[in-house]
């Protein structure tokens, strides 16, 4: 069950995050930050970061050009994390059943927030005509209220009164396992969908070597960080004569094979990137100004 103080903190954060996204832009309004804050409040930071990061990747390639609205993945991360921790829902299932539907539904609240702020925008215009600088400041600040309410109210009502509904949905999904498995699979695919949308709009063909470089570095760092325990075992083996011989064979094989194979692949990809970059730099032609010669055949200073 979600406690009243947790509802209060998450409601206040939801009100702040949209104002931060529109003004300060400190990334406090991003889904991964929302997952972090909600996980911290709910006492399960790992689940919050997982849900927040998954939704961050989902909307990675989605932009709001002009006055366009997009799905509110930040509020979706808040509610999905809160109910996942409170109701014991699997994180991937919470993404598909709570985060995505909520994020899509709150698009209408985003539009409502945009519409209501026009009232204060007209009051600002009137204050400008009167040279009323205090009125300009006052109405500008008041314009943040509808924006804050457009996120705070849905999150508050969902957290305060939506627990029974979510529990009913989870109980129903437990009785239909194939549907729950399908929704979990859909939740796993969403980050890949975000990457696909992003790659669709980026000039990937022109900069394919940068994509390869990122893959190589990611592969190398993944291996390095995932084998910290193996590194510790290897270091401890160097300190004792018989320590390495006492290690299980599986650990020694995993340590040597993973580091040699994946690291060499990463180094090869980095080498290919540098080669392609050098080739592209060598193909660039510098357009120089036409050179004119004097009657004597010498180039004058003012002709450069």
UniProtKB/TrEMBL annotation:
InterPro entries recorded: GatZ_KbaZ_carbometab (IPR050303), PTS_IIC_man (IPR004700)
Top-level enzyme category: transferase
EC number: 2.7.1.69
Subcellular location: Cell membrane
Cellular component aspect of the GO annotation: plasma membrane
The keyword Protein transport is annotated on this UniProt entry: no
Membrane-crossing residue ranges in chain numbering: 140-165, 185-203, 210-228, 259-276
GO molecular function: transferase activity
GO biological process, one term: phosphoenolpyruvate-dependent sugar phosphotransferase system
Topological category with respect to the lipid bilayer: Multi-pass membrane protein
Main location: membrane
Alphabetical keyword list: Cell membrane, Membrane, Phosphotransferase system, Sugar transport, Transferase, Transmembrane, Transmembrane helix, Transport
Protein name in UniProt: PTS system sorbose-specific iic component
């Amino acid at each position: 069950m979600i406690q009243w103080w947790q509802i209060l903190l998450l409601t206040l954060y939801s009100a702040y995050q949209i104002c931060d996204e529109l003004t300060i832009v400190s990334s406090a309004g991003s889904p991964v930050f929302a997952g972090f804050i909600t996980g911290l409040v709910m006492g399960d930071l790992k689940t919050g970061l997982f849900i927040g990061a998954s939704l961050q990747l989902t909307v990675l390639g989605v932009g709001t050009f002009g006055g366009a609205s997009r799905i509110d993945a930040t509020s979706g991360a808040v509610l999905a994390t809160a109910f996942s921790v409170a109701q014991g829902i699997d994180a991937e299932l919470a993404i598909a059943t709570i985060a995505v539907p909520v994020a899509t539904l709150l698009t209408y609240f985003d539009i409502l927030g945009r519409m209501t702020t026009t009232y204060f925008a007209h009051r600002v215009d009137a204050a400008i005509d009167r040279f009323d600088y205090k009125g300009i400041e006052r109405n500008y600040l008041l314009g943040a209220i509808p924006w804050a309410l457009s996120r705070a109210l849905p999150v508050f009502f969902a957290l305060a009164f939506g627990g029974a509904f979510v529990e009913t949905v989870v109980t129903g999904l437990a009785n239909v396992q194939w549907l729950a498995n399908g929704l979990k699979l859909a939740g796993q695919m969403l980050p890949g969908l975000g990457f696909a949308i992003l790659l669709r709009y980026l000039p990937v063909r022109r900069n394919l070597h940068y994509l390869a470089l990122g893959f190589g570095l990611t592969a190398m760092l993944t291996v390095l960080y995932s084998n910290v325990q193996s590194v510790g075992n290897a270091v401890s083996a160097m300190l004792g004569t018989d320590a390495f011989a006492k290690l299980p064979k599986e650990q020694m094989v995993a340590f040597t094979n993973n580091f040699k194979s994946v690291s060499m692949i990463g180094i090869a990809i980095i080498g290919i990137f540098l080669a392609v970059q050098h080739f592209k730099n060598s193909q660039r032609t510098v357009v120089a100004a036409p050179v004119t010669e004097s009657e004597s055949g010498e180039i004058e200073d003012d002709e450069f």
